[in-house]
Structure formats: structure tokens, C-alpha cells
Specification:
114 residues; mainly beta; 7-stranded mixed sheet; 4-stranded antiparallel sheet; 11 strands; 0% helix; 53% strand; globular
């Protein structure tokens, strides 16, 4: 059974930091590109960051220099380090796995507010 379980979301003040984590199971993690997407209320889901099976990274322009994606193929986890958070970063953040199939997690809420 495929599972992607996100954790680490919460409420943080502007300028603060959070670390999201996604634990994967039920598929060959090392063969999949892993991504973080987000969806704010009333907006479409958008790509935040992606890391390929061999470690190549790409980021949305709106997070470059603030967010860092990483993966641990042994632990089957992917993380998103977020610094200098802004109110516009408020959204549900979703973990995504893409290979011969596409899998999604249930999401974790990130709220940036004073």
C-alpha cells in the first residue's frame, strides 16, 4: 500500500522557519522524483520544489533562496526546509512522488501569520 505522510506544518510568524517532512512507503522510493506542491485557499495547486531520483533540484521562482528540498533514499523521506517565511506562503503543502505512477500525500497546513 502506497503511503506519503507529511509532517512538520504549523503556525509560524513572518520571517520564521519550518521543516516539512514526507515519509514514503509502498513503492521504490529511489526511482521516483519527489516534489512539494502547495495550494492556498481559492488558488490552484502549484509546484514548490522538486528533486529527481539522482538529486537534481529545481524550485519555483517564489521560493528560490528561501526553501531547500532534500531526500534520504535510505530512510525514504523527503524534506523541505523553509526560511524567511511570508504570509503568502500560507497553504496546504503536499508531498508528491512521480515515476511510473503518481502519488500524493494528504497535505500539511502551513500558516504564516503574526
Amino acid at each position: 500500500q502506497v503511503q506519503l505522510v507529511e509532517s512538520g506544518g504549523g503556525l509560524v510568524e513572518p520571517g520564521g522557519s519550518l521543516r516539512l517532512s514526507c515519509a514514503a512507503s509502498g513503492f521504490t522510493f529511489a526511482n521516483f522524483a519527489m516534489s512539494w506542491y502547495r495550494q492556498a485557499p481559492g488558488k490552484e495547486r502549484e509546484l514548490v520544489a522538486r528533486i529527481t531520483s539522482v538529486g537534481g533540484r529545481n524550485y519555483a521562482d517564489f521560493v528560490k533562496g528561501r526553501f531547500t528540498i532534500s531526500r534520504d533514499n535510505f530512510k525514504k523521506t523527503v524534506a523541505l526546509e523553509m526560511i524567511s517565511l511570508k504570509p503568502e506562503d500560507t497553504a496546504i503543502y503536499y508531498c508528491n512522488a512521480r515515476g511510473f505512477a503518481v502519488y500524493w500525500g494528504q497535505g500539511t497546513q502551513v500558516t504564516v501569520s503574526s
